[in-house]
Amino acid sequence: MQQFPKTSRRSILLVGASRGLGHAMAAEFLKKGWSVLGTVRGSARTELHDLADDHPGRVEIESLDICAPDQLAALREKVSGRQFDILFVNAGTANRDPSQTIGEVSTDEFVHIMLTNALGPMRVIESLEGNVSATGLIGAMSSGQGSIANNVSGQRELYRGSKAALNMFMRSFAAREAGTGRALAVMAPGWIRTALGGADAPLSIEDSIPKLVDVLLAKQERPGLEYLDYLGRTVPW
């Protein structure tokens, strides 16, 4: 890992920053003067590497598969002793056939989606929470489809369930963190045109992510857990 000199610049540890929403978040934080340590899966060049080239000394890149505990342990060792203003886990995925009912999903796919969308992010958060300043923010990318109260149409059942599980695990984490001054957030970015969201989604990345980052920055001033959308509106659990 390339070491950069210490500065007073605010910093985010952004997990899952190689492309899509994570890459857009990294770009937005850079626009706002922050430094970014972003993670990517594997060793191939990504869009985050292009950002690093465009912002010398302000972007660090580490490899992390959130489903691989050994890689998480290695990242934890590399950032030992460092403090970040925000830790945000963006990594996530969907099953190959989102139209399947939960009873139709294979066991292997169920385990993979739950590991990637719920268990993996929480392992990252619990492993790296000590690297977040006492008044910092810890967040994860959820989805409006993780809302139990708002589920009146069904569909995308495994994905919905994995995000609802992530929300519940964050509620448990928040209960354990109740005595701290940290802000906690699970974010619903809206239905966005990405590889995950598909071509029919109504929002572009540019419609959502700059506003989502502004919501996170405002949330830093409010300790405790909130479930928010990209416009800062509360999403019902």
From TrEMBL:
A Pfam short name: adh_short
Enumerate the SUPFAM superfamilies for this protein.
Answer: NAD(P)-binding Rossmann-fold domains
Q: Where is the signal peptide?
A: none
Instruction: List the InterPro entries.
Output: NAD(P)-bd_dom_sf, SDR_enzymes, SDR_fam
Know the name of this protein?
A: SDR family oxidoreductase
The species is Azospirillum endophyticum
